[in-house]
Amino acid sequence: MPALGLNSAVMAIAGQNMGVGFYDRVAQTYRKGLLIGFLMAVVSIPVMYFLSPMAMGLFSDDSAIKNTGVTYLRIDTLAFYAYVVLFQSVAILQAMQKPMFPMYLGIARQLVVPASINYVLIVMWDYPMVSMFYTIVTVVILSAIIAFFYTTREINRVKGPSS
Fold this sequence. Notes:
Elements: H1 2-19, H2 23-57, H3 63-76, H4 80-95, H5 100-124, H6 130-159
Helix pairs in contact: 1-2, 1-4, 2-3, 2-4, 2-6, 3-6, 4-6, 5-6
């Protein structure tokens, strides 16, 4: 939840600085947002990993459901910081009035790529359901890398060569 608040703050600060033409501050906001998000991840990842059994116990008494949930949460910790990078990148791009790339990336990340990969892995090759969890993590990490480089490029474009 704190990461969502960070996204809102980054978008607001970056948007204000875009509006007045302080493009260096947009870049600085992105860097600081990623750093603060990293520090949040350092704290949150162990909590998510070690408290996942207790968290799943709040939703179900069925041991199979709890075990599946714990497995997913623990695997998903691998992508925790990637989510931060992805959401910070989206916030910056939206503040820069460039929402189309995040939309296309979101469609690819949440629908097209996972559905295609999981169809092949699970339906055609008969991999276990846990492979779907690793697909999610892999797609999120790759999306975060793409978003980071695209966002950095867009910030550098508005800053211009002299900044």
